[in-house]
Design goal:
Elements (H helix, E strand, L loop, with lengths): L9 E4 L15 H14 L3 E5 L5 H13 L4 E7 L2 H10 L6 E8 L2 H7 L4 H16 L5 E6 L6 H14 L3 E6 L6 H14 L7 E6 L6 H11 L3 E4 L13 H10 L14 H12 L16 E2 L2 H9 L18 E2 L7 H10 L6 H18 L4 H10 L2 H4 L1
Parallel strand pairs: 1-2, 1-8, 2-3, 3-4, 4-5, 5-6, 6-7, 7-8, 9-10
Bound molecules: 3-methyl-2-oxobutanoic acid and zinc ion (ZN).
């Protein structure tokens, strides 16, 4: 399949808003600017810079990011409340291109037990907020909070009403990470098939990871028609986090059978991941897809032998594509002769097959004792075990 411009998926990065809601992580304005600049270099289309109404610090960060970062659209979050919208518009006044991201809860939980309201009143508040915002700015995104647990019929009704009121992007959040990919995809399909003028707005997926399905749900959304994904670097965010940006981007890059693309400069992914992890003091789990320490590390003998013969035997992503210099062949008691030979050659020792057998026997003893074997261990092994004599 060949991509056409309609198949571009916009990357809406919310590391600095939803991501920053992660417990224990409070970035100061300078740190946020540093991350925003890195996101700009990474090529994200939209940066959600904060929720200006929530605190003076968040307001200031949105102002400063709007001044410092010129290429991506800068979005500011608001509730469907005029005062919030006024404050957000003020915070965005220096933005080259600003976006108000306003919305309201649409699930029965939100309508009845959060707002103590009715469906009619919720539609009315949503429409009023969007119409009000459109008086001041053209780029208005509406979020239908907890859309994942909402009735499709009501969701379609409110989405149609806010498009009519002037919303240009419609965010369908699975706020509690409840949907399965099939359900989320069907929800998007339902909207496309039932909402009048749906093509006047871009649909956006905003998925949480409570059941580990945030990335799968975002992908189901894309396949069924969303063209913007809201995500965070390293998948950080409330509770179990948000859709991880690097995962969505690399799925679309690596699966050539999917006719979608992003404008992300993927070779900057690892650098940006490290920056966010350090500034937010949130270590990345070693087995995290794409950016974990072990994402390109091979430790079992069978895999190591396969990778050394042809990287693609066990790797679906070229590490260089995400800014990692090379795959690593980790030496442990699970490693085979091929891995040992590879590392000895790297250190300048070329052994005959017989010598390698001798070295391998010694190596296993060291590996059992030390769990992982370092270059220094190998040098000692090569030196004291008279590998030279065995040649
Ligand atoms: O998860 C969510 O519903 C949100 C909205 C505020 C966009 O983060
Ligand atoms: Zn969210």
């Amino acid at each position: 399949m060949v991509s056409n411009p309609a198949d571009k998926v916009y990357i809406f990065d919310t590391t600095l808003r939803d991501g920053e809601q992660v417990p224990g992580s409070q970035l100061n304005t300078l740190e946020k600017i540093e991350i925003a600049r890195a996101l700009e270099e990474l090529g994200v289309d939209i940066i959600e810079a904060g929720f200006p109404m929530s605190s003076p610090g968040d307001f200031k960060s949105v102002v400063e990011i709007s001044k410092a970062v010129r290429k991506p659209v800068i979005a500011a979050l608001t509730r469907a409340v005029e005062r919030d919208i006024d404050i957000a518009l003020d915070a965005l006044k220096h933005a080259e291109r600003g976006r108000i991201h306003t919305g309201i809860g649409v699930s029965p939980y939100h309508i009845y037990s959060k707002f103590n309201s009715t469906p009619d009143e919720i539609v009315e508040r949503a429409v009023k907020a969007v119409k009000y915002t459109r008086r001041f700015i053209d780029d208005v995104e509406f979020f239908a909070e907890d859309a994942g647990r909402s009735e499709n019929e009501f969701l379609a009704r409110i989405v149609e009403a806010v498009i009519e009121a002037g919303a240009t992007v419609i965010n369908i959040p699975d706020t509690t990470g409840y949907c399965t990919p099939y359900e989320y995809g069907e929800k998007i399909k339902y909207l496309i098939n039932h909402v009048k003028n749906i093509d006047k707005a871009i649909l956006s997926a905003h998925c949480h990871n409570d059941l580990g399905m945030a990335t799968a749900n975002a992908l189901a959304g894309i396949v069924n028609g969303v063209r913007q994904v809201e995500c965070t670097v390293n998948g950080i965010g409330e509770r179990a986090g948000n859709t991880s940006m690097e995962e969505v981007v690399m799925i679309l890059k690596c699966r050539k059978d999917l006719p979608f693309y992003t404008d992300i400069e993927t070779t900057r992914i690892m650098k940006t991941s490290r920056l966010v992890s350090n500034l937010m003091r949130m270590p990345v789990q070693p087995n995290k897809a794409i950016v974990g320490r072990n994402a390109f590390a091979h430790s079992s003998g069978i895999h190591q032998d396969g990778v050394l013969k042809n990287r693609e035997n066990y790797e679906i992503i070229d590490p260089a594509d995400v800014g990692v210099s090379d795959s690593s062949i980790v030496l442990s008691a699970r490693s085979g002769r091929a891995a040992l030979d590879h590392h000895l050659r790297r250190l300048g020792y070329e052994l005959s097959p017989e010598a390698l057998d001798v070295a391998y026997t010694k190596f296993l003893v060291v590996a059992d004792e030390k769990k992982t074997v370092s270059d220094d261990d190998l040098r000692i092994l090569a030196g004291i075990d008279t590998i030279e004599d065995a040649r």
